[in-house]
Amino acid sequence: MQLTGKQKRFLRSKAHHLNPIFQVGKDGVNDNMIKQVAEALERRELIKVSILQNCLEEKDEVAEELSEGTGATVVQIIGNTIVLYKESEEHKEIKLP
């Protein structure tokens, strides 16, 4: 799913007050983490993932792995935090402009 600039700005403003609910450490991204992130995206639609300093992978690689594994869109990578969005099938709350 491709987002327009306006939609990304909207989602960034929504994500501003959120706290990261997942952390990627030295083990990087694994299948279990992808499964849990996908479930959280289905419930919340918009989440933050924090990358710890001991993570051996680059943040761009982590973002790509998570987005490919879950089918989500990377809204933003700021510092060591990734913002992911995926439209929910059952719990749709966010209406994109």
Automatic annotation (TrEMBL):
<dbReference type="InterPro" id="IPR017924">
    <property type="entry name" value="RNA-binding_YhbY"/>
</dbReference>
<dbReference type="InterPro" id="IPR001890">
    <property type="entry name" value="RNA-binding_CRM"/>
</dbReference>
<protein>
    <submittedName>
        <fullName>Ribosome assembly RNA-binding protein YhbY</fullName>
    </submittedName>
</protein>
<dbReference type="Pfam" id="PF01985">
    <property type="entry name" value="CRS1_YhbY"/>
</dbReference>
<dbReference type="InterPro" id="IPR035920">
    <property type="entry name" value="YhbY-like_sf"/>
</dbReference>
<feature type="domain" description="CRM">
    <location>
        <begin position="1"/>
        <end position="97"/>
    </location>
</feature>
<dbReference type="InterPro" id="IPR051925">
    <property type="entry name" value="RNA-binding_domain"/>
</dbReference>
<keyword id="KW-0694">RNA-binding</keyword>
